[in-house]
TrEMBL record:
It comes from Tyrannus savana. It comes from the Eukaryota. It is found in: Endoplasmic reticulum membrane; Membrane. The keyword Coiled coil applies. The chain crosses the membrane at residues 164-183. This is TMD11 protein. Residues 8-104 form the GOLD domain. Belongs to the EMP24/GP25L family. Keywords: Coiled coil, Endoplasmic reticulum, Membrane, Signal, Transmembrane, Transmembrane helix. The gene is Tmed11.
Length: 196
């Protein structure tokens, strides 16, 4: 995506608790002379800020024009990941566009190939099996989180339906009492005028 040089851009990731998140990014600056984006943006850094659903800051750090960040979610819910350049140019002169490449991987534990080679006793099948077990645990966490969200939604729906039922009962009782009051008032009026 494209962002302005001084603009903050945020994305929302809905995460279950205890989930590892990796992010890789690369920033390219628009070159007015070449009329294209430079391969990199030397001297330009990016502030990466991650907030939890309770507005607690999990990560707030300055990185270079390209980098990798990671964090672990402690709560389930929508986490906000924000990016802003550290450009010191004045707002009037900081009008250049930035192209932002972002790759976010949720719940993945990457295989460290050098560690695999260092451990000669552990064969590749064993390492792959451990990786699959981690992925299964991640899927299980995702399913638990979805069940929790569905249960919360069901409780909210039941409460809403209960409120609607009580509101309908109150409306009906109000209409009946107004009708009885009108009939009594008309009867009293007719008796007073000696029409009945």
């Amino acid at each position: 995506f494209h962002i302005g040089e001084r603009e903050e851009k945020c994305i929302i990731e809905d995460l279950p608790s205890d989930t590892l998140v990796f992010g890789n990014y690369k920033v390219q600056r628009w070159d007015t002379h070449k009329h294209g984006f430079l391969e990199s943006a030397p001297g330009l850094g990016m502030y990466v800020t991650v907030s939890t659903p309770d507005d607690e800051v999990l990560l707030s750090k300055l990185y270079g024009p390209q980098g990798t960040f990671s964090f672990t979610s402690h709560l389930s819910g929508e986490h906000i990941i924000c990016f802003q350049s550290n450009s010191t140019r004045l707002l009037a002169f900081a009008g250049s566009k930035l192209r932002f490449h972002l790759d976010i991987r949720v719940g993945e534990h990457f295989l460290d190939e050098s560690a695999v080679q260092a451990k000669e006793k552990v064969d590749e099948v064993n390492v792959r099996l451990e990786h699959l077990i981690e992925q299964i645990q991640h899927v299980s966490k995702e399913q638990d989180y979805e069940r929790e969200r569905e249960e919360k939604f069901r409780k909210t729906s039941e409460e809403t339906n209960s409120n609607i039922l009580w509101w309908a009962i109150v409306q009906t009782l109000t209409l009946i009492s107004v009708g009885i009051w009108q009939i009594k008032s008309l009867r009293d009026f007719f008796i007073a005028k000696k029409l009945v």
